[in-house]
TrEMBL record:
Keyword flag Cell membrane: yes
Keywords, sorted A to Z: Cell membrane, Cell projection, Cilium, Flagellum, Membrane, Transmembrane, Transmembrane helix
GO cellular component terms attached to this protein's record: membrane
Protein name: Flagellar protein FliO/FliZ
GO biological process: bacterial-type flagellum organization
Any Pfam family matching the protein: FliO
Length: 130
């Protein structure tokens, strides 16, 4: 009985690749669904501190808290005052605006690259006709 042929091996690798992509897609989708359901508790920002621990700004209702999450447990480090909460919200809003501006800039840059390509082609074509 012959061993596994190359085509069977490639089919197996392709199937494994598809399963990994599908699992990744489904996990991301489930995470988004889970985030939408939770309206009372939101993780505003997460910063990894080590491989197994992180610091998070968590919103619970109207209160903002700095929490540590690790394998050994979770702990509230600080409850933010109203002023600190407003500062955090302003910073997040500014980051959102900056991201939007970068996205807009990328669109403009892409449009300019397209226009440049068209002009370059017209310029080159004008010499070909002569």
């Amino acid at each position: 009985m012959p061993g596994i042929g190359i085509s069977q091996f490639l089919q197996m690798l392709f199937a494994l690749f598809l399963i990994i992509i599908l699992a990744n897609f489904l996990l991301k989708r489930l995470d988004r669904i889970n985030q939408v359901r939770s309206k009372a508790i939101k993780i505003i920002e997460r910063v990894p501190v080590s491989k197994s621990s992180s610091l998070c700004i968590v919103q619970i209702g109207t209160q903002y808290m700095l929490m540590s999450f690790s394998e050994s447990g979770n702990e509230v480090i600080k409850e933010f005052s109203q002023k600190e909460k407003e500062d955090i919200q302003k910073r997040i809003h500014q980051q959102t605006q900056d991201t939007k501006n970068i996205t807009d800039l990328k669109k403009i840059t892409g449009d300019l690259k397209g226009k440049y390509g068209q002009l370059k082609k017209k310029y080159e074509d004008s010499f070909k006709q002569d």
